[in-house]
Design goal:
heterodimer, A: 249 residues, alpha/beta, Rossmann fold, two-stranded antiparallel sheet, globular, B: 347 residues, mainly alpha, Butyryl-CoA Dehydrogenase, subunit A, domain 3, three-stranded antiparallel beta sheet, 8 strands, 57% helix, acyl-CoA dehydrogenase activity (chain B), FAD (chain B)
Chain lengths: 249, 347
């Protein structure tokens, strides 16, 4: 079974992001970049499926400029077999990414596509669902457990009321939640081996997709600074403030 | 000439950094102080899984076959987290010694080191006390100009206290009748090269420690407020930390040059190592002093983690040659009659 994993290059989760002075976007100058944490969980799940003998090949795909090859190489060091970069300059919106991924799915014909549920930069939580709609594949989103059983995959989903398990017929799409697994660290020997693994570069034209933006970013601004806390005299005053100022009760 | 590290070296550094900063929290270090050995076999296995124990082991024996220049940034990362495990000693001193000794000894132990099944430690007699001798599966011990390869039943240990509770120091006495693996003229160049690598390892760790203390201080002074604003905004505090940053930058280049000289077999390597050890340990010492200063009374407390790094910096300053001995080596190299002077010789 071939597994396709999509990974995105984002600002490292340890970095405190800042808006550009003109508010046009997030400032990415001299900022450490990394694989989106949910995508890293997706890679780990695919590699674990391969280690269990369920998957035969793990292909990792990323959409972006040449720099996203770093994240593909990292995924290869984590255990993926080969990489594909779809070369797109600038920020591609979720619908474009989903269309490009559909092109890669048609080319590679994987049985299982695993994506992060969302990227920590855009927080859109759209690509997996859009890809499901475009390909007509079943989708198991917010997965906290994935079990492949013959021609089906059982996905346990984290939903508001608790857990829900759905059975999907393969080929299918899974998007990962935080508790699906704990990604491993890339080992030094695997980093060396990753350099020799194949990495193909495709263009949107190769996949028959026109990159067109439907969204205009108007403004980026930091959240409002929290004001200092106050001490209340008694419980009555606390309840009064919660009711009339904070309006939470 | 390009002095930057290669992409591969930076990838290795980043991988080691991710692992070490993710796994070696100060709480884990504090917990290790209360155990008998002070060492964590599970952590050693994790280090092996990441490939760190086999970094300098030749590829033929299951390692990566990297050299001092490849390892120097990894040692720096070990310093940044104050790693208690003897990784730097093992990878930078003991493994190259084993490789140089060769034969069956190397063939037997090197694959075990790469696999994380054995800790090989070097203690080369310039220091009367050997760190981590109690967890060594093989101790490469230099005494009286001879090199011994001792297994645990072939020597006696007497523990000595250290200022740093992470360190476990021992006086080593080989059992009577144990034969040296190399002696006299054969052992001398190996012991000398081992000493230089040990001093380089200290210097690289000191860089990491200095950086950690600086980062902690910057973070603290950005949070701690006095007179209505963060204390880091006051010029007097800024200057303290700027002094540390400058000392750190001035130490970084000598450490990398020393690593490069050792990797290339440059005959001036001892001079470069001595310079690196002095500069890096001075930077770490300054970082410790200034960090305590800017932390105020908090800096003295047991609860604040600063002392973990400060004590390790103090301990490293006296390991593998103290400041006086390294200054004497530099003086010998540059002040002796007939010593070459000028560009390429003294700097």
């Amino acid at each position: 079974m071939k597994v396709l994993v999509a990974v995105k290059r984002v600002v490292d989760y340890n970095v405190k992001v800042r808006a550009k002075a003109d508010g046009s976007d997030v400032d990415l100058n001299n900022v450490k970049m990394a694989i989106n944490p949910f995508c890293e969980i997706a890679v780990e799940e695919a590699v674990r499926l391969k280690e269990k003998g369920v998957a035969t090949e793990v292909v990792v795909v990323s959409i972006g400029g040449k720099t996203c090859q770093e994240q593909i190489r990292t995924a290869l060091a984590l255990g993926a077999d080969r990489g594909i970069q779809v070369e797109v300059e600038g920020n591609a919106e979720p619908l474009v990414v989903a269309k490009l991924l559909k092109g890669v799915v048609e080319k590679e014909e994987p049985q299982l596509v695993i994506l992060g549920k969302q990227s920590i930069d855009g927080d859109n939580n759209q690509t997996g669902q859009m890809l499901g709609a475009l390909t007509g594949m079943g989708q198991g989103t917010f997965a906290s457990e994935v079990v492949v059983d013959g021609d089906k995959v059982n996905v346990t989903r984290e939903i508001d009321g608790g857990l829900q398990t759905v059975a999907l017929t393969l080929p299918a799409i899974v998007t990962t939640d935080l508790r699906l697994n704990e990604p491993r660290y890339a080992s030094l020997p695997n980093i060396m081996k990753a350099k020799k693994k194949p990495l193909d570069v495709l263009t949107p034209a190769d996949l028959g997709v026109e990159v067109k933006s439907h969204i205009t970013l108007l403004k980026v601004e930091p959240p409002a600074e929290r004001s200092a806390g106050i001490k209340v005299a008694d419980v009555d005053q606390l309840v009064d403030k919660l009711k009339n100022e904070a309006k939470v009760i | 000439m390009d002095f930057t590290f290669t992409d591969e070296q930076c990838l290795f550094r980043d991988a080691a950094r991710d692992f070490l900063r993710g796994e070696i929290k100060t709480q884990r270090i504090r917990e290790s102080w209360n155990t008998d050995s002070g060492r964590d076999t599970a952590l050693w296995r994790q280090l092996a899984e990441i490939g760190l124990t086999g970094v300098t082991v030749p590829e033929a024996h299951g390692g990566l076959g990297l050299d001092e220049l490849d390892f120097v940034q990894l040692a720096q990362e070990c310093g940044y987290v104050a790693l208690p495990e003897p990784l730097v000693n093992c990878a930078l001193v003991a493994v190259p010694l084993l490789v140089a000794v060769g034969d069956e000894l190397a063939a037997h132990w090197l694959p075990k080191v790469a696999a994380g099944e054995a800790r090989v430690i070097a203690g080369l007699a310039q220091d009367p006390l050997v760190e981590d001798a109690h967890v060594a599966d093989l101790l490469l011990y230099g005494e009286g100009g001879n090199l011994y390869a001792l297994q645990p039943d072939e020597y006696a240990l007497v523990r000595s206290e250290s200022v740093d509770p992470s360190r476990r120091l021992f006086r080593v006495t080989p059992n009577p009748g144990v034969a040296a693996v190399l002696d006299g003229a054969q052992a001398e160049p190996l012991l000398a090269a081992g000493f230089e690598r040990g001093a380089l390892g200290c210097a690289a760790q000191a860089l990491g420690l200095a950086q950690r203390m600086l980062d902690m201080s910057v973070e603290y002074t950005a949070q701690r407020e006095q007179f209505g604003r963060p204390i880091g905004s006051f010029q007097a505090v800024k200057h303290h930390l700027a002094d540390v940053a400058v000392a750190l930058e001035y130490a970084r280049a000598p450490v990398y040059r020393a690593a490069c000289s050792l990797a290339r077999g440059d005959p001036r390597a001892p001079l470069h190592v001595a310079h690196a050890k002095l500069a890096a340990c001075d930077a770490a010492s300054l970082a410790a002093t200034k960090s305590i200063q800017v932390h105020g009374a908090m800096g003295y407390t047991w609860e604040v983690d600063l002392h973990i790094f400060m004590k390790k910096a103090w301990a490293l300053a006296g390991s593998w040659g103290d400041a006086a001995s390294h200054k004497a080596r530099i003086a010998e190299a540059v002040l002796d009659d007939g010593a070459p002077l000028g560009a390429g010789a003294t700097f």
